[in-house]
Amino acid sequence: MKKLLRFAALAAACFVLSGCKAELFSDLSEREANQVVAALMSVGIPASKSASRGDGVTVLVDESRFAEAIEILNAKGLPSDQYDSFGDVFQKDGLVSSPIEERARYIYALSQELSRTIAQIDGVLSARIHVVLPETDMLGRDFKPSSASVFIRHLEDARIAKFTSQVRLLVANSIEGLVYDNVTVVAVPAETQEIAASEGPILQNVLGIWVHPNSVNRLWATFGGLAAVALLALVMAGFQGFAGRKSNAADEFDAA
Questions:
Q1: Is the dihedral of CA 208, 22, 84, 76 positive or negative?
Q2: Rounded to an integer, what distance in angstroms lies between the CA atom of residue 79 and that of residue 244?
Q3: Which DSSP helix (H) or strand (E) runs through 147?
Q4: Which residue pairs, CB below 8 angstroms and at least 24 apart, start in 234-237?
Q5: Which helix (H) or strand (E) segment is 130 a member of?
Q6: Sign of CA dihedral 219, 222, 226, 231
Q7: Are the CB atoms for 177 and 145 separated by under 8 Å?
Q8: Which end of the chain, N or C, is less surrounded by CB atoms within 10 Å?
Q9: Cβ proximity of 12 and 22 under 8 Å
Q10: In b/e form, how buried is each residue of 192-218, taking b as 16+ CB within 10 angstroms?
Q11: Whose CA is closest to 24, among 39, 6, 2?
C-alpha cells in the first residue's frame, strides 16, 4: 500500500506539472518582468514569473500560447531594448586601444545614451540613433559637419510628430559640432491590429486563481487529482492506525 501511495503522489505531481510552461524571457529586471506579465494578462494570456539563476527574473507562459505571446510583445515593444552606457562601453580592461577604436567606441556609446533618452518618451517603442562625426583635421581641410539620423518606432496613436523638433534639438545639443539642420528624424508607427484582435479572452477566477478559460477544466482536474491523493493518504493513515490498535489489543489478550 505504501508503494501505491507513493505512485499516486508521483502521478499527481506529474499531472500538476503537465500544464507545460515555456520560458518566454530570462534575466529580466523586476520592472521589465512586471511589464511583460501585465501586457500579456491584459490581453488574456496567463503569464507568471520565477527567479533566474542569477539576479534576473524569468517570465513563463503556456506553451500553447508561446507564439501568440511573442507576437503581442513585439507589437508592444516589450521587453524594452537594452542600451549600453558610457561606463559599459569604456570599461577598464587593461588593454590599450587605438585612436580609431576609441573613436568608434565613443560614437557607439554616444548613440546608445541618446537612444536610451529618446526611448523614454511616452509612446516610443524603440529608438536608434546613427551619429556621423567628421575626422579631425588639424589643418582644417575637407571639413565635413557632423550629422545624425534618428529612427523612432512608436505606437500608432502616439503623437510623435509634435516631439520631432524637441528630439532634433536634444540630439543637436548633445553632440559637439552638430547643428539642428543636420539632424534627421524618421518616425514609423508599429502595427497594432494583431493586439486588437487578441483582446477577447477574459481570465476566470477559480478558487482565487485567475486562469484562462481554456485552462479551467485542467485546473479542476488538477484539484481533483490532489484531493484524491489526500483522501488516499488519510485512508492509509486510518488503516495503519486501526491495524496498530488491533495488533496491540491482540498482544494484550495473549498476555492475559
A1: negative
A2: 60
A3: strand 147-154
A4: 236/1, 236/2, 236/5
A5: strand 124-132
A6: positive
A7: yes
A8: C
A9: no
A10: eeebeebeeeebeeeeeeebbeebeee
A11: 39
DSSP letter string over 83-117? ---HHHHT---SPPPPHHHHHHHHHHHHHHHHHHH
**Of 107-111, 160-164, 205-209, which range is least confident?**
205-209
Distance, CA of 231 to CA of 183 (rounded, Å): 72
DSSP state of 64: G
Looking at the chain, the whole-number percentage of residues with pLDDT higher than 70 is 64
Q: Give the three-class secondary structure for 119.
A: coil
Number of residues in the chain:
256
The owner of cell 507513493 is: 6
Cell numbers found for residue 41: 494578462
- The grid coordinates of residue 110 equal 554616444
The predicted-structure confidence for 60-108, as pLDDT tens digits, reads as follows 888 878 888 888 888 777 887 766 665 565 665 656 666 767 777 788 8
Side chain identity, residue 14: C
**Residue type (1 letter), 234:** L
Q: How far apart are CA 153 and CA 161, in angstroms?
A: 12
In angstroms, the CA 118 to CA 153 distance is 11
Least Cα distance to 49 among 63, 68, 66, 36 occurs for 36
| Residue the block writes with cell 500560447 | 65
Which helix (H) or strand (E) is 233 found in, with range? Answer: helix 216-255
Instruction: Provide, for the chain, the percentages of residues in helix, strand and coil under a 3-state DSSP scheme, each rounded to the nearest 5.
Output: 50, 20, 30
pLDDT tens for 208-242 read 666 667 677 777 788 787 888 788 877 777 777 66
Q: How many CB atoms lie within 10 A of CB 46?
A: 22
C-alpha cell at 6: 507513493
